[in-house]
Amino acid sequence: MSYDPQGGGGTPPPDGGETRPTSGGDMPSSGGGDMPSSGGNETRAMGGSDMPPVSGQPTQPTGGYTPPAGGGYGAPTDSESSGGYTPPPGGGYAPPPQSGGYGAPPPPPGGGYGAPPGGGYGAPPPPPPPMGERAAGPGVTVGSMGTVNQASLQDLLQSWMNALTKPNVATYEAEIPKASWLRTLIGVAVVTLVSFLINLIFAGLAANSMNQALSQLHAQGVTSMDWIANFGGGGGLAGAFLGLIFTACFFFLGAGILWLSARIFGGTGSDFMTHSYLLSISYTPLRVIAAIANIIPLVGGIISFAAFLFQLYSAGLAMQASQRMQPGRAQLAAFLPLIVGIVLFCLCLIVLVFGLAAAINGANR
Question: Is 26 a domain residue?
Answer without folding.
Answer: no
